[in-house]
Specification:
The structure holds two protein chains of two kinds. Chain A is an alpha/beta fold. Chain A is built from 14 helices and 17 strands. Chain A has two domains: 141 residues, Alpha-Beta Complex (Aspartate Aminotransferase, domain 1), CATH 3.90.1150.10; 255 residues, Aspartate Aminotransferase, domain 2 (3-Layer(aba) Sandwich). In chain A, helix 8 links the parallel strand 8 and strand 9. Chain B is mainly alpha-helical. Chain B is 57% helix and 11% strand. The chains are: A alpha/beta, B mainly alpha.
Chain lengths: 413, 144
């Protein structure tokens, strides 16, 4: 974690000028956008990249011989190289473009699961997974008659590693957990989780949806087998993301979808598949958004993840202290290491009501189960109010949130 | 009062809020707080209105050929919204409820303060109320 002395390096007010969407009124008040864990806003560099592509060099990639196709192909492949560097993958072809984390997990579950899971095998996930990291495994486990095992969550919202060690066995084939929880903010000790899984002979997939914008990701150091990112949660466009996979595993896996681009030769008798990464990129990909994704990564790199983490950590600490002090508030998720996600419930007030009343004051938070129903059941609640922060948020905005909450609470008492 | 007279009364009340979103939300919740609580025994799964994001219970009885709804919700805003329907349909005949044109929704700008999800839920509530009216009407016709 960076020290607070690095914070002045970022001039937040100036930085906000790069996010035109923030400069508007909602219900007669300045917008306060605290729904960043659902999707972050996009800087001008990303928006301009999309406009430049469509106005300057829109063309289908890879097979075109003309100038525009060449330019689009270069830009698309440039993002792949940038992504390789961003997560420190060994090979560029280990980066597969997908629609985002959900598709990345489905790809691994369907393809790796299809090839390597057998009856009585086990897949381990955790009790704080997003539905996207639950349902694909349920589907393939049902198909293969394999069992799904769950790492329990402690009262503080951390994974019970002792229980995890006991779950691991020679039957464990896949472990799939998130790097950081979208509902609680908990940063999970994935390096240790990966090490233990490898000892048991299992491969590990990390859902990095909530980590991409906040945490250092070094897939070689982590030694994870698969890592998934969504662009739109890290200042990039919607509809794209990556699957990182170790080359030796991706090579052994069957294609996920069939179509153009993923083939070498097609006859009615036999089709041979293309090499990595194209084997897993059937059809015309999301060219524009992949190209623009690079600018989101450059935005993050320019600011420096340490600086960003320091600012967000300061916001989280400030908000946690203020909100926890309000009457009737109970924090959900009090892990020691957290990304900037603050989940809470208020006695006697439904999260939907809080969300709507805050919206009436121009404050955007998320309410509900956050696509983690099993986790909510574990916490004995239907849902939470979740405020999640990004680099462009300020303490003044948190003060607005606290004022709004105070008003709601006093009205309902 | 007729259904339309009650609707006009509601439109008038909301116009005093001058379109201020926060005041409107608080007002809706106040209305919900005033709605008599539904007995816990009636908050059954059978009485849950399907299609609502929050939980809504609805039951109905008929007295002297007039319908009276009882409703509740686990969220204050939804309870306020459903209280409007309970008030509009209170003591009306099945026929009047079936043929009611609920123009108050548009006039008070409901689409501004309930999102797509709640709109669908609200539509489910109205549908359920009209189904009750239809059931009572059919019963009455069989009797006569």
């Amino acid at each position: 974690m960076a020290t607070t002395s690095t914070i002045p390096a970022i001039d937040i007010e100036k930085l906000r000028e790069q996010f035109p969407v923030l400069n508007q009124q909602v219900n007669g008040r300045d917008l306060v956008y605290f729904d960043n864990a659902a999707t972050s806003q996009k800087p001008l560099a990303v928006i301009n990249a999309l406009v430049d592509y469509y106005t300057g060099y829109n063309a289908n990639i890879h097979r075109g011989i003309h100038t525009l196709a060449e330019k689009a192909t270069k830009a698309y492949e440039h993002t792949r190289e940038v992504m390789r560097g961003f997560i420190n993958a060994r090979h560029t072809e280990e980066i597969i473009f997908t629609r985002g984390v959900t598709e990345s997990i489905n790809l691994v579950a369907a393809s790796y699961g299809k090839a390597f899971l057998k009856e009585h095998d086990e897949v381990i996930i955790s009790g704080m997974e997003h539905h996207s990291n639950i349902v694909p495994w349920q589907l393939i486990c049902d198909e293969k008659k394999a069992a799904l095992k769950i790492i329990p969550v402690t009262d503080e919202g951390e994974l019970d590693l002792d229980a995890y060690r006991k779950l691991l066995s020679h039957r464990t084939k896949i472990v799939a957990v998130n790097h950081a929880s979208n509902s609680l903010g908990t940063i999970n000790p994935i390096k240790e989780i990966i090490r233990l899984a490898h000892e048991a002979g299992a491969v590990v997939l990390i859902d990095g949806a909530q980590a991409g914008a906040h945490l250092e990701i070094n897939v070689q150091d982590l030694d994870c087998d698969f890592y998934c990112l969504s662009a739109h949660k890290m200042y990039g466009p919607t509809g794209t993301g990556i699957l990182y996979g170790k080359k030796e595993l991706l090579e052994k896996m069957p294609p996920y979808q069939g179509g153009g681009e993923m083939i070498k030769d097609v006859t009615f008798e036999k089709t041979t598949y293309n090499d990595l990464p194209y084997k897993f990129e059937a059809g015309t990909p999301n060219i524009a958004d992949v190209i623009a994704y690079r600018y989101a990564i450059e935005f993050i790199k320019q600011l420096g993840r340490e600086n960003m983490a320091a600012h967000e950590h300061e916001l989280l600490t400030y908000a946690t202290a203020k909100i926890a002090a309000l009457p009737g508030v109970r924090l959900i998720g009090t892990a020691k290491n957290k990304v900037a996600v603050l989940s809470f419930v208020v006695d006697g007030i439904h999260p939907f009501d809080i969300g709507q009343m805050l919206d009436a004051r121009g404050i955007a938070v998320r309410t509900g189960h956050h696509c983690t129903q099993p986790l909510m059941a574990r916490c004995g609640i239907e849902g939470t109010v979740r405020a999640s922060f990004a680099i462009y948020n300020t303490k003044k905005e948190i003060d607005h949130l606290v004022d709004g909450l105070s008003r709601v609470i006093s009205f309902m008492k | 009062m007729t259904i339309n007279q009650v609707q006009d009364e509601i439109i008038n009340e909301f116009s005093l809020l001058d379109g201020d979103m926060e005041m409107t939300v608080f007002y809706i919740m106040e209305l919900g707080q005033k709605l008599p609580a539904m007995p816990a025994a009636e908050q059954t799964d059978d009485n849950i209105v399907k299609g609502c994001q929050s939980k809504v219970w609805l039951s109905a009885k008929i007295e002297n050929d007039k319908i009276y709804f009882t409703a509740d919700s686990n969220t204050a805003i939804t309870k306020g919204l459903v209280s409007l329907l309970v008030r509009i349909f209170k003591g009306q005949t099945p026929d009047d409820i079936l043929h009611a044109d609920l123009y108050f929704m548009h006039k008070i700008g409901m689409e501004r303060f309930i999102g797509t999800q709640r709109s669908n839920g609200f539509a489910s509530m109205i549908k359920q109320m009209k189904l009750y009216a239809l059931a009572f009407k059919t019963k009455m016709e069989v009797k006569s």
